[in-house]
Amino acid sequence: MPGLEDLYKEIILDHYRNPRNRGELESPPAHRTEGFNPLCGDEVTLTFELKDGSLGELRIAGQGCSISQASASMMSAAVQGKSISEVRDLTRQFKSMMSIHEESIDSKELDPASTGTFQLGDLEALKGVVKFPVRIKCATLSWNTLLTGLDELEA
Amino acid sequence: MNLPSDLKDQFPLLSQIINGHQIVYLDSAASSQKPDSVIEAMNSYYRTINANVHRGAYEIAAQATEAMEMSRGQIAKFIGANSANEVVFTKNATESFNLVARSWGGQNLSEGDAVLITDMEHHANIVPWQILGAERGFEIRWIPLTSDGHLDLDQLDQLLDGVKMVSVTAMSNVLGTLNPVREIADRAHEVGALVTVDASQYVPHLPTNVNDLGADLMCFTGHKMCGPTGIGVLWGREEILDSMPPFLGGGEMILDVRRDGFTPNELPHKFEAGTPPIAEIIGLGAAVSFLESLGMAEIRQHEIQLTEYALNALGERYGDELTIHGPKDASQRGGVLSIQYRDVHPHDLSQVLDQRGICVRAGHHCAKPLMRELGVGATARASLYLYNDESDIDALVDSLEPAGEMFAL
Predict the structure, then answer these.
(1) Is the complex ipTM higher than 0.90?
(2) Range of the domain at B365
(3) Hey, are the CB atoms on A135 and B347 less than 8 Å from each other?
(4) A53, A153 in Cβ contact below 8 A?
C-alpha cells in the first residue's frame, strides 16, 4: 500500500508552498495557453516567449492541488532557457515517468544517455504520483498545456 | 421511528477495509452503496429467469417480463405517478434529460423561445439544452442564487417571460439546497411553461410525489437510491409523453416498420429502444422495496439529524477555518456537505482522508457554473445516506486537522 509520503515528498510541498515563476507575461507578445483538468476543475494558464528557438521566460497562473501546482512550478524551473527540442525531449521523459505501465514504473530507470539529454533532477520527486493513478493527470496538466502551446506556435 | 442501527450490516461493501481502516463511505451523492437484497435480486434474475423481455412466449421470458414490469409499477407508485405507463426507463438521469431536450425540445423550441434553468444545475441539466440551443437558437436563462445558497426568485416573473420550459433541480448536488419546486412550477404553469425536475438527489432521500411537486417531467437515476448503475428514469405526465416524438429508434419502440416508415409503440415502450437493462430494472425495483421497508419519512428524518450533527461538529471543531457551502439549516437542505477547509485543496484533502479509509468526492461535481458563482475551482464533498451514522461524521471531523497541518500555506 503506497503511503502519503510516496506522494507528498518534501520538495513537492516546497514547490507547492513557494511556487516558482508564478504570474502572467503580457500577451502578446508572449504566447498564452490554457489547460483544464475536466475531472477535478484544475486550471493552468501558461504564458511564455520563444527566443531564437529556445524557451525564454515562462509564467504560470491558475489554480489546483499541490501536485498540479508543484509539477507546474518544477516544470517552469526545468524548461526555461532550453531549446524547443530539448523541452520536447524533457516533456517526453516526464510523461514517460508518469506512464502507468508497470515496466516504466519499476524497471526502466530513466537513463539520460538513452532517453534524452537531461536528467529529470528534482522532477524525479514526482515519480511517486504513478502509484496514485487518479493523480497522474494533476502532474501532467502543465506539461500537456506546454506541449499544446508549443504545437500552436509551430503549427 | 428511527432507522435500524445495524443498517450497515445489510451493505456488504461497508465492511471493506481500505488502507487499513474500515471504510467510511461519504460519497452517496455520487453513488450509493447497494444492500444485499438488491444484489441478490439481480443475481437471482440471472440465475433463474434470464431471457429477453416482451418477446418469447416461453416461461422464463414471461417471468422476466413480469419482473421488469412489476419494477416499473413499484417505481410509479414510489413517486406518486398516475400510471406505470408514465415511467420510462433510461440509462441514467443524464439520458433522461437528453431525451427531454431532444424529443420535447426538438418539437417545441426554436428561435425566440427560452428555457429557464438555475445556477445550481448539474451539467446533465445544462448541456443537453446548450446542444439543442446551438442548433435552434433559443435562449437559456438562469435563476441566480442568494448568498446563502438558495435560489433568488425576486426576478422570477421577468425571467419567466417567454419561457416554454423550466428545468430545475429539486436538490442541489453541491449545496444540498432543497428548492421550492412547487412554487416555481405554479408560477411557470401560469405563463404556460412546462416544468422538468431533476430529482436525482431528491428521490433517494425524501418522500416524493410528482403531483405535489407540480412537475410535468422528472429525471432521476437508480444508482443513487441503493439501486444499480445503468438504470435511470424519466417520468412524465402521460399526455406530454404521448405528444413527444421517439428519441432513440430501434427494436421495442415500434408497433410496425415498413419500407416507407414506422409506427411508434405505445407508452412507455415508445422511448425504450433496444433490449432494456433487465437485471438493473429488477434491481431498482428491489431498491424501492428496500427504501419503502425503511420508510422515506424515516430516512429523511435520519438525514436531517445526521446533517445537523455534522454541521455542529464541524463548526465547533474548526470554526472560521472551515466553510460549508449552502444553507445552514438542516431542515432546508439534504445531507450534502461541500467543504472548504483552510487553504487545503480538495484533492489533497480527499487524498489524506483516503489514507484513513474515508471516501469523499473532490472536484467540481459536474456543476462548473455553480463553482464559478461560489468562486472556487473545486470543493471536497461529504454526502450522507441512510447507512451513515455519527461515527462516520466523527471520523471525518478528526481527519481534517492532519490534512491542514500538511498543506497549510
Answers:
(1) no
(2) 7-29+295-404
(3) yes
(4) no
